[in-house]
Design a protein that fits this description.
Blueprint (H helix, E strand, L loop, with lengths): L1 H13 L5 H12 L4 H8 L5 H34 L21 H14 L4 E2 L5 E3 H4 L19 E2 L2 E6 L4 H10 L4 E10 L11 E11 L4 H16 L4 E8 L2 E10 L5 H6 L5 E10 L1 H6 L8 E8 H8 L13 H4 L7
Parallel strand pairs: 1-5
Antiparallel strand pairs: 2-4, 3-4, 5-6, 6-10, 7-8, 8-9, 9-10
Bound molecules: phenylalanine.
Phenylalanine (PHE) binds next to strand 8, strand 9 and strand 10.
Amino acid sequence: MIDKIKELIAEAEAFKAQTKEEVEAFRIKYLGKKGLLNEYFAEFKNVANDQKKEFGQAINTLKNTAQDKVNALKAELENASDNSTSNLDLSRPGEPITIGSRHPISIVKNQIIDIFSNIGFNVSEGPEIEDDWHNFTALNLPEYHPARDMQDTFFIQTNPDILLRTHTSSVQVRYMENNPPPIRTISPGRVYRNEAISARSHCFFHQVEGLYIDKDVSFADLKQTLQYFTTELFGKAKIRLRPSYFPFTEPSAEVDVYWGLETETDYKITKGTGWLEIGGCGMVDPNVLTNCGIDAEEYSGFAFGVGIDRIAMLLHQISDIRLLSENDVRFLEQFKSAL
Ligand code: PHE
């Protein structure tokens, strides 16, 4: 009988299984209630005394061997089902990964930031929800100043001191309050105006405003800076400064770039003139410097503000400003190859 048990031990050791079912059948055969081991244990009392020891050891070995085998095979099959490669079809084509694209507003904004950082301007940002002081009063627009009407402001109804900024000049005020001259900074950001929405204008849009404050800054510096900027951005150098009015600059001008009239979009965006009005500029009014704690006797400076949306529309031939905020994937996808 002992020889038979030794045979079974060797058999159990050599046993291999492919499936859990085979392991279970093995377990039942050896370790189950009516399994071989229980049979041998029941046999124990019939074994001659002098053989009991050897017999006992043999069935214990068989039991341990079978139990170890079951445990080992179970663990092996568990692992295999976790990272089994047997069901994978390695010849299947991969799932396409959709890659996002940068928004045309961001593309143009980043280009403008690059152009100005090359001549030493840093980037400053501020809140879109502003107070009256930073959006108006500090900029030489006291309460009841008629020029406040130029900017159709969204006010918070319960608190007329709080509004959605109408320009990023508010960031320049914050910057001057917190940084001594010399100052060279640009402030990109979203601004809001209560305007009727059409293909050409929206109730929110984007600006980059620039500010340069130092000793002896002149209008010629302003003009050269704008000339440099437009040449870098558009590759076209022809600009035009039209006398204008802003409460926070004196003298003030409107900046136009000659773009041309090659496409229908050019016609639409330039209203058929070929000239694109990109923004306003001027020498910072001494009152503004004083309001912001800068000595207007010692320092002078220039400021300008350009609209990003219209520039993006021209550079990327987008004929309707509303496309920029509708988040239509078919539109946005087209900018994948841009920056
Ligand atoms: N803040 C002005 C606007 O939004 C633009 C501007 C900026 C004009 C700086 C002059 C100087 O209309």
